[in-house]
Amino acid sequence: MSFADLNLIPELQRAVADEGYTEPTPIQAKAIPAVLERRDIMGCAQTGTGKTAGFTLPMLQLLAPYANSSPSPARHPVRALILTPTRELAAQVSDSVRTYSKHLKLRSTVVYGGVDMTPQTKALREGVDILIATPGRLLDHVQQKSVSLGQVEILILDEADRMLDMGFLPDIRRIMGLIPTQRQSLLFSATFSEDIKKLANQLLRNPLLIEVARRNAPADLVEHQVYETPAASKRALLAHLIRSRDMKQVLVFLRMKKDCNKLARELVRDGINATAIHSDRTQAERELALADFKEGRTTALVATDIAARGIDIAELPFVINYELPYTPEDYVHRIGRTGRAGLPGEAISLMSPDEERLLTEIEKLLKRAIPRKTPDNFDLDRGREQRPRRETRNEAPRREPQQTAPAPRPAAQAQTPAHSPSPPKPQRASDGFDFSKPYQPASAGSPVVQKPPVSQGRTRRPAAALLGGLAVKDKK
Ligand code: AMP
């Protein structure tokens, strides 16, 4: 199936072709025709499935008749409102709206909290056809009368479950009271909790249910572990783990994009072939970085949560949380990158003392403790390997990254946990949350299985295949 088969207007077909998309993803194939028929939608889909284009493309098509280049704000009332839980997601959706609407004369803007309101107010006063917003900041603007929602025709709630988790329900209800009842509503959520169903019942009219297969393999194939370490030792510990475990392909997560380049540079200095991927890099640079990683030319890909969203790697053996995420749900997203395709994976977190609170939140969400480990042959206090190497430390690349692996040690030695304060209790959450299936409604009551450690001398797997995401292989 092609995008032309979905009856998208030429302006949108050109925009997706510019992105290198050759065919719609399953959620796009289902959602686009239904939205074009003005149906309400209840979509159960995670990020990485292409859901943003799934709702944005038909939304733009429905708004296309209003496209105009008049400077008058009156000609650009808010006709589509997209609510997201976080500013990161708002920015990401806004980027997508811009990308897909680039051949249409429709205006869009994004408003979220934590930044100065003035530029947002100015953009709103100039008139926008499509508004992407986090609920709280949107209400601030409504209160200041910088925006009116009286002409909204399409309402989209993205990651509705996270909005509820974050306590936005009262804000959402207030916003509902400000927009016309005669409208089309689309609700996307990664989970189908009772609360989400209740919200859907209130918001949607005879919705079409669209569910796309969860793309995460059972996380019971993922072994989780935490290294408690002083913050100052993290970088050396990371390099030590990559080398001593002979990791060939590892996705390293950081919170801030500004830190990604620095860490990648430091790893390269340590003789590890690393590169950073974040939203400040051009599309071409990102594609190159991904292709190198996919083909096994890069060992470590350093990414932020946002940048990693477009990355779908079929056989990724290691995910390392260099920093723990601020929200526990992001941990689930991160670790969902490994343990796919029926292959085991490891999710390793480096936790400094100031991050203990974040780990507690993660363990609370998972309803289990993550085993603590101490590294072999590494002095955490000094932040250096204990076994002296022949080369002088902190010097320029020792040798080619492919040759940096030290003599293999027995896997058991590398893996033995130093202590597990509270052994993981395989159990499910009271709401049925099954850790082995992140963001999937619970089915059978299978307990969490701790897989045996992956041998550090594991044979090299075929290079990871990028399935969706930036679809490097599709881009010429
Ligand atoms: P989303 O699930 O909306 O966060 O999208 C995940 C990634 O998939 C984004 O980086 C999109 O650019 C990409 N994407 C969306 N639709 C397609 C498509 N039809 N073909 C290839 N990549 C796509």
Can you put this structure into words, describing what you see?
The protein has 476 residues and is α/β, with parallel strands linked by helices. Helix content is 32%, strand content 14%. It has 16 helices and 16 strands. It has helices at residues 10-18, 26-36, 51-63, 87-100, 118-126, 135-143, 160-165, 169-176, 194-203, 234-244, 257-269, 283-294, 305-308, 328-335, 356-366, 411-415; strands at residues 41-44, 80-83, 108-111, 130-133, 154-157, 184-189, 208-211, 222-228, 250-254, 274-277, 300-304, 318-321, 345-351, 372-373, 378-379, 384-385. The strands form three sheets. Strands 3-4-2-5-6-1-7 form a seven-stranded parallel sheet, with helices on both faces. A hairpin with a 4-residue loop joins strand 15 (378-379) and strand 16. Helix 2 packs parallel to helix 3 (51-63), helix 3 (51-63) crosses helix 4 (87-100) and helix 6 (135-143) packs across helix 8. The model is unreliable at 391-476 (pLDDT under 50).
